[in-house]
Amino acid sequence: MITPLRVDAIIPALNEAESLGRVLDLLPSPPVRRVIVADNGSTDSTSRIARDHGATTVLEPRRGYGAACLKGIEALAHDPPDVVLFLDADLSDDPTEAGALLGPILEGRADLVVGSRTSGARERWALTPHARFGNWIATRLLKVLYGARYTDLGPFRAIRYESLRKLGMADRDFGWTIEMQVKAARMGLRHVEVPVRYRRRLGRSKISGTVGGSLRAGLKILGTIVADYVSHGPPVSGASGQPGGTSRRGTPS
């Protein structure tokens, strides 16, 4: 029998009034008990829409994807969940797939689950060529340097709250997702991927929609990997956790 776990969602958002309401309406409850929308300095009605749809809002005026996620984590401290679900506010992730993403954790098989956009069905041009290339390089480095098998650095992911706390996340911008995967590999967290659908976002992308934005994000991601490896060296043998292959059932391969 699967023991019920408390699941809270964090949604970083910057001027996502067009899509946020639909994201919140589609997010299944249960298993999600509470949603924190971390408003990253929006100038539209993002915060009002979040509140109107039952979410708790917190404000992080310092721009940065990681900064918004960190502010959302702070908001969980007074009543911490067992599991934290992260997803974007632009409807590129499919909130109805939250159950599939949470499954391996709720069943006790994983500490970290990453939704793989490259293994799932995706709309044409939802992932730009430069984004796919950067993603490919980063995941190959994770395999070579840390022995951690991934196909994606996707933002749609779930992690046990205690594991997240122990990671000591610190990156405030583009390096957030790769920092989590690098630190998880170094700590030996059990990780798997599940294929997820990925759609073209509503509105203009703040990062991958331009070559310049993708280049800055790519350099930060690669720099995060290199900096960790130079500082700490290879992980202790056997510490990279259960190899995280991708399967339709979210089981390691």
TrEMBL record:
One Pfam assignment: Glycos_transf_2
The UniProt record lists the keyword Nucleus: no
Ranges of residues in domain Glycosyltransferase 2-like: 9-167
Gene3D superfamilies associated with the record: Spore Coat Polysaccharide Biosynthesis Protein SpsA, Chain A (3.90.550.10)
Taxonomic superkingdom: Bacteria
SUPFAM superfamilies listed in its UniProt record: Nucleotide-diphospho-sugar transferases
InterPro entries, alphabetized: Glyco_trans_2-like, Glycosyltransferase_2, Nucleotide-diphossugar_trans
One function term, GO molecular function aspect: transferase activity
Swiss-Prot/TrEMBL keywords: Transferase
Protein name: Glycosyltransferase family 2 protein
